[in-house]
Amino acid sequence: MEDNFCAQDFYSECRQCPRECRARRSEGKRAFCGEDSSVRVASAGLHFGEEPLVTVFGGSGTIFFTGCTLRCSFCQNYQISQQGMGSPVSREDFVRICLTLQDKGAENINLVTGSHHIPALAEFLSAAKKAGLKIPVAWNSSAYESVESLELLDGLVDIWLPDLKTLNPIMSKSLFEAEDYPRVAKRAIRWMIGKSPLNIVEVGRGKEVREKMLGGTIIRHLFLPGRTDDTVMTLDWLKSHADGKACISLMSQYTPVPFEGSDAELEARKNSLCAFQNRLVNKEEDENLRALIEGYGFEYLFYQDLSDDTSWLPDFRREQPFSNALAKPFWHWKKGFLL
Fold first, then answer.
1. Is the model's pLDDT at 229 over the cut of 80?
2. pLDDT confidence of residue 5
3. Which of 19, 100, 135, 334 has the fewest CB atoms lying closer than 10 Å?
4. What residue ranges define each of the domains in the chain, with the CATH number in brackets?
5. φ, ψ for residue 73, nearest 5 deg
6. What span, in angstroms and rounded, lies between the C-alpha atoms of 315 and 64?
7. Are 285 and 223 in contact (CB under 8 A)?
8. Cα(312)–Cα(294) distance, rounded to whole angstroms?
9. pTM over 0.90
């Protein structure tokens, strides 16, 4: 990072994400993402629900940011991505959170939904590394990001965890008001793959040996019930452009979220969710997906086991937003550090 870099320069007329809304966030104005120039965090802790390459033994040191450039109508984290739960953190706060997670055994620092704060987080990460952060940094995002913004993270992020939600512009327009999502996400993911070749090593704890990702990309696709054709379109693209160069993670855990909010908000969400069947994935779909994915022969692939358990859905009002089996929190937006 250049010595004269100043994150706040990017917030005067914000064009950080592909929406290019030009909001004057440095003056306290909020953009589509819901945020001004302050960086807000909802929760931080060890998370054990990511792919095995990411959680390994110690768990992934996740930091959940408030706000989002996409605001999906089915978002499980809607309380923080769309309803503003979170508290501002300074650069010093961020550094302390990162170093605490490292001290508690985190395998990496996993930045969740930070796309609207790339300049500030680039500055924060640089400070954390100077202060002693040594574990890999993972960027966990929707992939609705401009390459020009992502380049600010070059050399600071080791692992990329992008979603590839859909390649159907009709769906992306309905579900997150971004008809250009397919084009933008493909460009961003190609850049990520090019920047971070796969670097997977074996690590041991006692007699047990597991694989750990030190660098590379895991591309996630969530199957939406009743939309098999959209998943086929996505897998076709991944086979052509990512196979052997990135890991593919096909997720089947779509879960209807018991949303809370104003009548207008709930009505808008209901209308948006009509784009697909808002229900759990059924056994027949799961079997069809397994047969489908088998036919592609991806070199690196993760596939979730089907489950009707919804207890994993987070509630960020709680100090422990997730189930105890999934996460161990160390920082919460209402309390700060929980140590």
1. yes
2. 67
3. 334
4. 9-337 (3.20.20.70)
5. -70, -20
6. 12
7. yes
8. 27
9. yes
